Amino acid sequence: MWKIGIVLLILFLIHQVFLRRKNSRADPENANSTEKSTNDAVTQNEIENKIWNNKDEKDQSSEFKLQTIGQDSQVSEKSAVSKVRPRKVVRAQKKIELREITLNTDSPVIIFYSTLTGSSEKYARIMKEELETVMTKEIEIMDLSYIDGLDQYFCNPSKALNNYVYLFVLPSYEIECPLDETIELLQTTLKDKTAKPWPLTNLAGFSIFGIGDKESWPEESKFCYQAIKMDRLLGKLGARRISPLGTGCVKSNLKANFQEYLDLLKQGFVNPTSITHDFEDLDDALENENNNKSEVQDMEDIKGQTDDSEVLEIKEMVAKDSPTYKALTKQGYTIVGSHSGVKTCRWTKHALRGRGSCYKFAFYGIKSHLCMETTPSLSCSNKCVFCWRHGTNPVGTTWRWKVDQPEVILEGALAGHYQKIKQMRGVPGVQAARFAEAFNVRHCALSLVGEPIFYPYINEFVGMLHEKQISSFLVCNAQHPDNLQALKRVTQLYVSIDASDKKSLRKVDRPLHKDFWERFIKCLDIIRTRTEQRTVYRLTLVKGFNGSDIEGYADMVERGMPCFIEVKGVTFCGATNPLRMSNVPFYDEVVDFVEALNLELKHRGLDYDIATEHAHSCCILLAQKRFKIDGKWFTHIDYPKFFELVNSGKEFGPMDYIAETPEFALYGSKHQGFNPEDVRFRRKAAENRANLEKESSELRND
Known about the structure:
By secondary structure, this protein is an alpha/beta fold. The protein contains 23 helices and 24 strands. It has a 10-stranded mixed beta sheet with strand order 11-12-13-14-15-16-17-18-20-19. It is globular and about 125 Å long. The protein starts with a helix and ends with a helix.
């Protein structure tokens, strides 16, 4: 009997298992309720955090609210987010609320433009005139090329710009143009994980009108492509689009399209309009970061292209058919390749005529008629107020152009220099002996314009100079510490020290890098370590900008401990430059500054003293006292000895190739640094200024 009972029990258990399996198949939702609940929670979390998935956050205090986006139809009713209620988006425990803004005729407006030929400026001013017929506040208009600190408008705008409307009139060039700098800045900001997210959310909005040439650029991807890219980048940075992107072709419909665009724009201001964010832009911003898309891919995304194999051609820095090329050649430059230049210095012309050499002859023994002034990079990372480039050179923080080989640049620079020397053949006063000598360049001043250290093959270029027994003086702007660290030996290495504090440096140099001060300080630290060669601080004094903080400059000297300190008054470069004659210091003012700086350095126990001067260049040299041997200064260079040491492959330092400084160059000499073998020539304007300096000096002495 007990055996029968066991069998019945087993049959009963089998029956129960069968029933459970049957019920499970009939009601899978209940069987998987736990798993379903978990999946719903995951789906809900993905929806709620869609645009903040993988982005870090620094500030934990703000709160945004986003308007609801339609949900995917596959989400169940229990887990779906309502399409009516406002949506909150959580980012690393931070809630952010994007507010709606209403446009009206009281909205403050800034019109930005960029131009090479003047067309965009013309239409920007037309836009200003048209909008002022309906707006109550005065409209500002700005050239993007001349704005001091673009990041203050586009990367970290101040509260004063809250509710502003940004309008743009932008051309598109296949060649290098000033607008590239702004685009590069926006791209860098978008990719910067440490930057404030969506920095342009507090603007009222933006709109862009692009000007292009559809006949010359039949490819859809190139017509107004820079305006399209700007439109996309501004949206990704959080700005609201108040009006659709407008475009016009200069050879067909520009005027009609521009007027249509203006009418639509004015209508938006006259009829109060509530503006919200384009969430597609904000989603794309994070999607691009997560996928780490390249700039070229981003451009293809803008144009709606899907062929990832297509790559836009890299531009030439200064193309031969560009307005930049024409402007530079008009100023006397010979463009070498696509990014280099050479120009004959006025002191080279003076030396050929026996009218004196520049301060480098008095300080270091370089004859100006044997000197070639060139640069392998016409681009710079600063827009200094005292620069003589008249705003024509390209700028940038990274190298984004085609690269010419160093041998091509050197051969082209020498050929261009010699061609300009030939043009001096018939000039009255040219000395035959010096004219003949001038065709054997002995020195290269890598300080013409731009940032020579920016050139990717600068070490190879300098090496080729030394192979030809041509000495190298290289000037950098202290904005590329990595390049400076990688730089090999040059005859003399300069760093421009144009201010003693962060605020003044921004004001004088107008740097493009957001971390310009940190880069500047790092370069000074590198200079301190370059004990194997001659190092120089170059201070350019600009009256009213940077000529008063003696202690600050002494701090800079103490940090880098350069071999020499050149202090020079700024040179007036004409009416197109932001500076005026009132910003140019008199020579006696430069003397006062140098003597005060020298006294401060002595108080700190730093071994410097005033060594030489060149009054004609408004320049004075301080040097470490180790260059003063037995009461005599040795600031000059023994150039044959330098090349002998370079070719030997042995280690050597600054004291191994020194030469004695001539008496006429010494500070306090009656010649004031002017070579007595030459004859000083004064123009009438120069004579008047010299008389003013003399009178000023006499009044100060009284």
